[in-house]
Amino acid sequence: MLIAPSILSADMTNLKSEVDMLNASAAEWIHFDIMDGVFVPNLSFGFPILEAVRRCTHKPLDVHLMMVQPERYVEQFKASGATNLTVQYEACTHLHRVLERIKKLGMNAGVAINPHTPASTLEEVAAMTDIVLVMSVNPGFGGQAFIENSYSKVSRVRELLQRKNSSALIEVDGGVTLDNAPKIKAAGADVLVAGSLVFTASCPPETIALLAKI
Ligand code: DX5
Ligand code: ZN
Q1: Which of 25, 117, 119, 155 could bridge across to 113 with cysteines, CB 3.0–4.6 Å?
Q2: Residue 208 Cα, ligand 1 centroid: separation in angstroms?
Q3: Which helix H or strand E contains 84, and what residues bound it?
Q4: Whether 103 contacts 78, CB under 8 Å
Q5: Distance between CA atoms of 101 and 75, rounded to whole angstroms?
Q6: CATH architecture, domain defined by 2-212
Q7: Which residues does 50 contact at the CB level (< 8 Å), separation at least 6?
Q8: Which of the ligands is closest to the CA of residue 174?
Q9: Do 80 and 51 form a contact (C-beta atoms < 8 A)?
């Protein structure tokens, strides 16, 4: 499994040491949850934090935009060091155009779907998408419980991607634990986001390594 720790749950008073820990760990990506207080009822962080972390790591920055009208900031996220840029299906009137712009700028384009959004909504963009982010919690906060329906939803996304000959990675985001990770993988996931699991662990690198070995 590829592991993408979410720094939303990191100790912000020691961000550099948290990133140093991730650099030395089995983490594949660093997941950034950008929240605007409109699409989700929370505010997280923005460009200054992203640029600061960019300066401390060579790992891909996996940016998850939980905001309305994300097309306003695509160029700025590229300039700030985003490797992957994932927009919420529910926030995009012109999803096809946003994905095209993200890819044209040389980033990997992702689509996140909320728990209520069916896998079938990806039908017409599956072939152009690099990442499908299956939200296994209602977005906005770390530390929430995994929504059980997400297992079968990951399988439905996997089936759709295979049918569309899409090489997109399936990333699962929210409530991932060492207990549910094997079942999430069996359902067809490639990447696991883990926030509270990693940053509340007694030994985060060991937890990341255990997740990666699944
Ligand atoms: C939720 C975010 C998730 C969250 C994951 O809105 O998109 O990335 O930070 O945190 P955990 O792993 O604690 O659910
Ligand atoms: Zn996220």
Answers
A1: 117
A2: 15
A3: strand 84-88
A4: no
A5: 9
A6: Alpha-Beta Barrel (3.20)
A7: 32, 34, 61, 63, 77, 80, 81, 82
A8: 1
A9: yes
Q: How far is the CA of 142 from the centre of ligand 2 (A)?
A: 9
Q: Are the CB atoms for 15 and 53 separated by under 8 Å?
A: yes
The response to whether residue 144 sits with its C-beta less than 6 Å from ligand 1 reads yes
Tell me, using a 6 A CB cutoff, whether residue 29 lines ligand 1.
no
Tell me what pLDDT residue 83 has.
98
142 lines ligand 1 (CB under 6 A): yes
Phi-psi region of 140 (alpha: psi -120 to 50; beta: other; left: phi over 0): left
Print the SS3 string covering 90-129. HHCCCHHHHHHHHHHCCCEEEEEECCCCCHHHHCCCHHHC
- Between CA 77 and CA 80, with CA 93 as vertex, the angle to 5 degrees is 0
Residue 202 alpha carbon to ligand 2 centre in Å: 22
The answer, yes or no, to whether any atom of ligand 1 lies below 6 A from the CB of 110, is: no
Q: List, for residues 73-130, the tens digit of each pLDDT value.
A: 999 999 999 999 999 999 999 999 999 999 999 999 999 999 999 999 999 999 999 9
Regions of the chain with pLDDT less than 50: none
Which residue in 11, 20, 173, 179 is the catalytic one? 173
| pLDDT computed for residue 89 by the predictor | 98
Question: Residue whose CA is closest, atom 3 of ligand 1?
Answer: 174
> Does residue 33 carry a catalytic annotation?
yes
Which residue has a Cα nearest atom 4 of ligand 1? 142
